Amino acid sequence: MHGHSIYRLLTSHILNATCLLLASTTGLVKGQSSAEVRQAFRDLHDDKIPGNCVRATNWLLQHREEAKEDLLDELYQTDTDSQERDAILYVLFNTSSFAPDERFARLVIARVREQDSQVRNGVIFELKGDAGDLEPIHTSGAHWEAWPFMNKHFSTFEPLLKEQIGRTKNVFVLWGTAWLFKKRGVLKDYSALFTPAVLDSAVASLRNDQQPYNATHAVRLFLLLGDQSLPTLRKAASSTDQQTRYLAKATIDALTKGSHDAFGYLSSKVKLTGVPFGAEPAEPSWLSEAFAKYSDRDTYP
To answer: Tell me: the pLDDT tens digits for 174-200?
Structure first.
């Protein structure tokens, strides 16, 4: 009996020691992992150290599933700088198991409005075709990567995008929303939200204001909305701003006549075939000749 008691006591000590060792080892592993995550977050900052952000982003991509809660917590820190924010968004966008809530969705839409005014395209990562979980994009940047993510989680973003139409004057958001709604087959359902006031705000982007791609996004929006755009474009066709006037006239002729000349003029001034993600539409065979006619002319027709 006494021998059995000693055996049980020794067994208990061994088990306790083993449990303590395992707990200590597990804590050490977690501690190291946490330290690596914190270091990665520091390296994401816009600190002017070449390659830091790209290397840290790639490391976080490799560990994105286990680090997603840390990534989200870091994203919501008030002192997160713009470069770190974009890198975290990119990693979360490409984390298959990550499901956005309304708070995250609103942050994403707010980021889209910013475009590349705070973080230049291509700073965070290098496009590698199959680097992430989403459909391919053509230009690297969180405001571009947001669109395939919104498409993937469309039910979460749909009501917020509808809400934005009447609130924003940002033509990139308006065009991207219209394009995504068309892709999802619901643009006709929401076309009434693109009111004359909304379209008037888009016309302002046709001006020669030195804002990159504003006119491009506006023309794409008007072409997407079709005949609904015509009353607004007809007013714009008498604008005192030359660029507005000619782009409006050409867009009207493109919509009402399918004029090759009109498409040639437009393609010489803006990029018509661009899309937020996925395959771009092929250019028709006649476009290059029509383009050449206006390649060195600013006036239309």
So the answer is: 999 999 999 999 999 999 999 999 999
- The 3-state secondary structure of the chain, one letter per residue: CHHHHHHHHHHHHHHHHHHHHHHHHHHHHHHHHHHHHHHHHHHHCCCCCCCHHHHHHHHHHHCHHHHHHHHHHHHCCCCCCHHHHHHHHHHHHCCCCCCCCHHHHHHHHHHHHHCCCCCCCCCCCCCCCCCCCCCCCCCCCHHHHHHHHHHHCHHHHHHHHHHHHCCCCCHHHHHHHHHHHHHCCCHHHHHHHCCHHHHHHHHHHHCCCCCCCHHHHHHHHHHHHHHHHHHHHHHHCCCCCHHHHHHHHHHHHHHHHCCHHHHHHHHHHCCCCCCCCCCCCCCCCCHHHHHHHHCCCCCCC
Q: Where are the domains of the chain?
A: 32-152, 173-301
pTM equals 0.85
Q: Which pLDDT tens digit goes with each residue over 49-86?
A: 888 888 999 899 899 999 999 999 999 986 779 999 99
